[in-house]
Structure formats: structure tokens, C-alpha cells
Design goal:
single chain; about 725 residues; alpha/beta; Serine Threonine Protein Phosphatase 5, Tetratricopeptide repeat; Rossmann fold; Hypothetical Protein Tm841, Chain: A,domain 3; five-stranded mixed β-sheet; 22 helices; about 40% helix; about 15% strand
């Protein structure tokens, strides 16, 4: 019997969990409470665990002690920061590669990091946080027995709840909480006994989810994410059982590659079918940002660059209330960069269908009327025009001038620092007052960490910047480099930098062209965290706004924003639920005002835009508009079914009446790939007769699944 958890058991667990999820992928996809075509929790979990498996397989661990808290900053982080000497990175890279998987905590951290970068949908993000919570809990454990496993499951439950803005019971959160509570009650050092208790309690909690969430009871299903977690816990029991397979790496490589994350719209055909490959090209053009070297996710990218200068679309009404600024932490879930997966990206694709309106977040039907929902929005609005600043978004105050009484910020000071997080918080404040272009990046974990510190100061600020490091901890590998006349360090002047960027999630050639015309970088639907990071890097910007256009992609966007901010890129997420809201947001974007003000204006514009959709029902269901059958046409307003019919034109006209009847001055129509000829003319003629004072814009979006998208402002 396995008395202590080791790295080999972690790899067995990951491999067994992936095989179980693949076997039940279609079953979990079908556990959808909505009739709309977006039930793919099973597929999202398969893709997330595939990324975790690839991260574990990327580098075979070498024997040796676990990493210490004073290890130099790993390559994946330091390489992303301009001007870091190569000598400051080599030893760190070697140490992280040889020790990351040698301990169970290191293997779990690598697994969690891979899952984070490959996470798709709310379910994938929550599972990645469950793994991260376990890894954090085990980081300081010399040996992992039953008590430590129970503590790790408690940490996993807390991390899962912390990842959700408004936790809802009857979801995967209830399942992981029940598993943690049962594990704690065992009070034994028997690993297998604790794992079995957790798995059994999770299964019982899953059976109770319909009692906790009425939507599940109405649909006659259990929670899809909770079902996936039960499979993972069963796989943990199997990995700890003496007869468990010896090496998950024996899993067919082709099978692993087939679940890689290049989104191809395919439906799984059987309960045990792995995602099928498709020849979908995903190319990223010139990722110039520092993020490029820090976001090597084991997925191919779905990024498209803007191809023309921004052009204006109709400006939306700004009738929604002004939003108040609120802080969102960008430093949660720290993970060691040494656990980043290999940069090798398999050119395969998976069965990916549109993400479901998950019950994991009790989401309002429109954009919240508070900017606390805008991830990354600062508490203080920065004065000044950020277009004049090449260092915008790096955590310094915008009102600072390039000059001061002692002269220009003409020197770059950087060093590695061994210090506790609390001391570094104080250090940030001191350095922020001395100069600009401040970047402080840590290795992650609890207690003493290694930090990479980078700041531009005047000649008189060099000494104080070093003294501040001494007060915070132990600085070493200190370098001071003169900057050129524009405040650039070595190699920085030649790197193109855009001051602002926007990343939009969309599918369809027409929609892609619309967003590119607005200056946005487009990533295909249902992206992973890694693909979002690649898109952020592709903008080459220091300040980036993310428009996820789907409630289920919002968690992925938030996760990507937190990762990007660790490299010094300032990122805010405007929680758009539909492409028409993103069009409204981009229409009011103004690059001459401070970034924070611009994000607020974009969120207000999106919140003032009601959105509607026409799609085909994928299954029989009971909706607020009555029962529907598979194959019926559904008209949805703000995510709720309002119209059921069998004629596309008739359903579309009823949907327009429902939306315009509530008031509106501007209507936007986006026709899908399956829209028949003549539909646009019929809709235009009807609006001109029935709603003559409404301004109408229509576009051929070419989006799959949704025959028509409607925005009313």
C-alpha cells in the first residue's frame, strides 16, 4: 500500500482522470440544463486535463530535493521582463526544471499550472483552482499522508469558492466542499482511506445537487462540473490503490494530442469518444509583448490580428448609471513559473461546442451596474493621457512626469530579492515613489519567495532603490543600466509597443472583420487561458481590455488577466455576454482618455445594450416561455427563452418586438452562417414599418449556432 503520496502517483492520477473524463465526455456534455447549443462541460474538462497532462509530460523530473524558497526567479518569468541579464536566469531555469516534478507538491503545481493555462469554461477554471489549492497546501509538507491530503482538499475547496464571484450551491463547489469535509472527518494517516472517503462523499453530494439547484431538478440532471470532479476523485483512489497502473505516460500520445485545444466545432459522437482532430490553423502574428515568453500553453492559438485601422460603429446610448471604481486583486493564485508547460503546441483540435450558461456563477442577465464586476479596474482613476506614456499600466501613478527635480528617470535598477510577500508590498510603495516602469514579480507560494524587481529611477534614486531592497530582504544580482533618451533599456527601443489593446472572443468571418476594424485582436470561441494570454501578448500593448462575450468564458478571461498582470501588463475584463455588447463597448472606446475611465465607459455602453439571440433547441426542455422540443427555434432575451416557434423569420420578428417594446433607439442585427437569403430584407422592412424611429444596423456575422444576434440600445 502507498503510505505517502509521490510524484509518480500524481502522474497516475492525472492520466487516470483524463482517461475517465474522455470516457464520459459525451455523458457530461449532455448534463445541460438549457436547450441552447452550448452544453460542453465534458469537452472543456477533457481539454483542461489534457493541458495538465502535457505539462506533467513536458519535462521528466530528475531526482533531488524539492525547490527551496530562495531559488532564483524561473526563466518563464524573468525572460518576460526586458533587460534581465541572462546570468540571472540560467541557474533558476535549471533548478526549476530538475525539481518541479520531483516532489508531489512540485508535480501537482506543474499539473495545476498546465490546467490553468489550458482551462476552458467555468468548469475548467474551477478545476484548475482545485489543483492549485492542493499544490499550495502541500508545498511545505515533507511527506504527504492522509492528514496532509485532507488538508489539501480543504485548501482546494477554499480555492474553488474564491474563484467564483457569487458561489452557488448545487454545483461543483458543493461537491468539492463535501469531499473536503469527509476527508477531514477520517483523521487518519491512511492515504487511501482519506481518498476513498472524499470520493464517496463527493458522489453523495453530486446526487443532492438537484435538491439544491432548481434548474437541475427541472432538467432532471445532476451538475455537470460536479460529475467531472467525482470522476477525478475516483481516479485519485485508483492511483493510490496498489494495483494502479505504473505510468500514465503510456497513454496513447495520439489520444492525448487529439484533445489539444484548437477549437473546431464538432459534436462528440459517443460516450467514450475522444475529441477528434481537425485541420484548423491558428497563427499568431508577431507577439511582441513581454507575455510572449511567459505564456507557453500547450494549446494552439486562435488569435487574429486587426487588419485595418479602427472605424466607428454606431455609438450606443449611455443611459446606464455611472459605475464606481473597485479594486480587483491581480495577485491571487500565485503559481511557480517553473511549472509552466512546454511551449510545444500540438496541432490537433477537439470536439468543442459553445460553453453553457453555467450555474457556477449566478449571473445577472445584463452587465452589472457596478464596475466591481470589471476585473482589473483600479481604485483610483489615473489623470493624464496614457497615450503619451510607453510605461502605462505597470503599477505606477500616471501623474508622474518623466522628469523630476533631480533629473530624468534615466537609470534602470533591477535585482533579485529573497523576501516575504508582506515586505514586498511595502517595497512596491517605496519604489513607486522613486520612479516608474515598476515591475515586481514573485515565484509564488507561501512564506519566503524570490522576486524579480525592476524600476526606472533618476540618478539620485539608485541608492534608495537598493536600500529599499535591503530593508525588504536580501537583494542580489543587482544591476544598474543607463537608459536612452526615451527611457528604454537595452533592446527595448527596438520593440514596438502599442499603448492600448483589446481582445475579443468571437466566431465567424463577418464578426471577426467587424472587431478587427475596431482595432481589436480576435480569439476564437471557447478559448483556453493560454490562448487568451497569447492574444494579450499579440496586441503588443501595455494596457489591454478583454471582452469575453459569453458568461462561460468570463472566468477564463479573469484567469488570463491575473496571469498577464504578473508580467506587468495591465488588463481589465468588461463582462460582455454577447458580441453585440462588445460592438457597443468598442464604439465608445476613446484612446485619448485614461485607461480606467475608458474601461468604465465601455462597461456602461455594454450594460446599456440588451442582447437577443435566435438558435435551434438542442434538446427537450421546460423554459420560462413554455416547453420546447429539440429542433424548435428559440428566441432569447438576455439569456432567457422568450419565444418558441418553427419559422425563423417569425421568431426573429417576435424577438424584435419583445426587445424594442421595452424601449430603444438603436438596433443592431448580426446574421449567422445559416441565415437564409431574404431574412435581412424582411427584418429591415418590418422595423421600418413597425418601429420607424429606431435606427437599424445589420451585418453578416457568419457566426455558427446562432442564426441571429440582436442588440438594442
Amino acid at each position: 500500500m502507498l503510505e505517502t503520496l509521490d510524484a509518480a502517483a500524481v502522474r497516475r492520477w492525472c492520466g487516470g482522470g483524463l482517461r475517465a473524463l474522455r470516457a464520459h465526455q459525451h455523458e457530461i456534455d449532455e448534463l445541460n440544463v438549457y436547450p441552447v447549443p452550448d452544453g460542453d462541460t465534458g469537452t472543456n474538462l477533457v481539454l483542461t486535463l489534457t493541458s495538465a497532462q502535457e505539462a506533467l509530460d513536458a519535462t521528466e523530473p530528475a531526482p533531488g530535493p524539492p525547490p527551496t524558497a530562495v531559488a532564483p526567479t524561473p526563466t518563464a518569468r524573468t525572460a518576460a521582463i526586458p533587460g534581465i541579464p541572462a546570468a540571472s536566469r540560467g541557474a533558476a531555469a535549471a533548478l526549476s526544471e530538475t525539481t518541479a516534478g520531483a516532489s508531489p507538491a512540485g508535480a501537482l503545481r506543474r499539473m495545476a499550472r498546465g490546467a490553468l493555462l489550458g482551462a476552458r469554461g467555468n468548469s475548467g477554471v474551477i478545476v484548475s483552482q482545485i489543483l492549485r489549492g492542493m499544490a499550495d497546501s502541500l508545498a511545505a509538507s515533507a511527506a504527504v499522508r492522509g492528514v496532509e491530503l485532507a488538508r489539501a482538499l480543504r485548501s482546494a475547496s477554499e480555492a474553488a469558492y474564491a474563484a467564483v464571484a457569487r458561489p452557488v450551491e448545487g454545483t461543483v463547489l458543493s461537491v468539492v466542499a463535501a469531499a473536503a469535509e469527509a476527508a477531514a472527518r477520517v483523521r487518519s494517516d491512511d492515504l487511501l482511506a482519506v481518498a476513498r472517503a472524499a470520493a464517496r462523499a463527493a458522489s453523495e453530494a453530486l446526487a443532492r445537487t438537484p435538491q439544491q439547484l432548481p434548474a437541475l431538478a427541472r432538467a432532471g440532471v445532476v451538475d455537470a462540473g460536479g460529475r467531472g470532479l467525482c470522476l477525478l476523485l475516483d481516479a485519485l483512489v485508483e492511483a493510490l490503490t496498489p494495483a494502479a497502473p505504473t505510468d500514465p505516460a503510456s497513454t496513447d500520445p495520439a489520444s492525448t494530442a487529439s484533445a489539444s485545444a484548437s477549437p473546431a466545432v464538432r459534436e462528440p459522437t459517443s460516450a467514450n469518444s475522444a475529441p477528434t482532430s481537425a485541420s484548423v490553423s491558428r497563427a499568431v502574428r508577431e507577439p511582441t509583448s513581454a507575455l510572449a515568453s511567459a505564456t507557453s500553453a500547450p494549446t494552439t492559438s486562435a488569435v487574429r490580428e486587426p487588419t485595418s485601422a479602427p472605424t466607428s460603429v454606431a455609438s450606443p446610448s449611455l443611459s446606464s448609471p455611472v459605475l464606481s471604481s473597485a479594486a480587483t486583486s491581480a495577485s491571487s493564485a500565485p503559481t511557480s513559473a517553473s511549472s509552466a508547460p512546454s511551449a510545444t503546441a500540438p496541432s490537433a483540435s477537439a470536439s468543442v461546442s459553445a460553453p453553457s450558461a453555467s450555474a457556477y456563477v449566478s449571473a445577472p442577465s445584463a452587465i452589472p451596474a457596478s464596475s466591481s464586476a470589471i476585473t482589473g479596474l483600479p481604485t483610483v482613476t489615473e489623470p493624464g493621457n496614457e497615450l503619451d506614456r510607453g510605461d502605462a499600466g505597470l503599477g505606477h501613478k500616471a501623474e508622474k512626469s518623466r522628469t523630476n527635480p533631480e533629473g530624468e528617470y534615466g537609470y534602470e535598477v533591477q535585482y533579485l530579492l529573497d523576501a516575504a510577500p508582506a515586505a514586498v508590498d511595502t517595497l512596491r510603495g517605496v519604489l513607486d515613489g522613486l520612479g516608474d516602469s515598476l515591475v515586481v514579480v514573485g515565484t509564488g507560494g507561501d512564506g519566503l519567495q524570490t522576486w524579480n524587481v525592476h524600476v526606472h529611477v533618476a540618478a539620485g534614486g539608485i541608492g534608495p532603490a537598493m536600500e529599499a531592497g535591503v530593508e525588504a530582504g536580501r537583494p542580489y544580482r543587482i544591476s544598474v543600466t543607463p537608459l536612452d533618451d526615451n527611457g528604454h533599456g537595452p533592446g527595448e527601443a527596438d520593440r514596438p509597443v502599442r499603448k492600448r489593446g483589446a481582445v475579443v472572443v468571437a466566431a465567424g468571418d463577418g464578426l471577426t472583420s467587424l472587431f478587427e476594424a475596431e482595432g481589436a485582436t480576435v480569439v476564437d470561441r471557447n478559448p483556453s487561458t493560454g490562448e487568451m494570454l497569447t492574444a494579450i501578448a499579440a496586441t503588443g500593448a501595455r494596457c489591454v481590455v478583454l471582452l469575453p462575450n459569453d458568461a462561460n468564458t468570463h472566468a477564463v478571461a479573469v484567469s488570463a488577466a491575473r496571469e498577464a498582470e504578473k508580467t506587468g501588463v495591465r488588463v481589465s475584463v468588461v463582462p460582455t455576454r454577447s458580441p453585440v455588447q462588445a460592438l457597443a463597448a468598442l464604439a465608445v472606446r476613446d484612446l485619448t482618455r485614461p485607461f480606467a475611465d475608458d474601461v468604465i465607459a465601455m462597461a456602461e455602453a455594454a450594460g446599456a445594450c440588451r442582447y437577443g439571440e435566435v438558435c435551434t433547441a438542442q434538446r427537450d426542455s421546460l423554459t420560462v416561455a413554455g416547453p420546447c422540443r429539440a429542433g424548435d427555434l428559440l428566441g432569447l432575451v438576455d439569456g432567457e427563452v422568450h419565444v418558441i416557434g418553427d419559422d425563423l423569420a417569425a421568431v426573429s420578428l417576435q424577438l424584435l418586438d419583445r426587445m424594442l417594446g421595452g424601449g430603444g433607439e438603436l438596433a443592431t442585427l448580426v446574421l449567422g452562417a445559416g441565415a437564409p437569403d431574404g431574412l435581412e430584407d424582411k427584418l429591415r422592412g418590418y422595423v421600418a414599418r413597425a418601429w420607424p424611429f429606431v435606427e437599424l444596423h445589420s451585418y453578416a456575422g457568419g457566426q455558427p449556432r446562432y442564426h441571429l444576434l440582436v442588440g438594442v440600445e
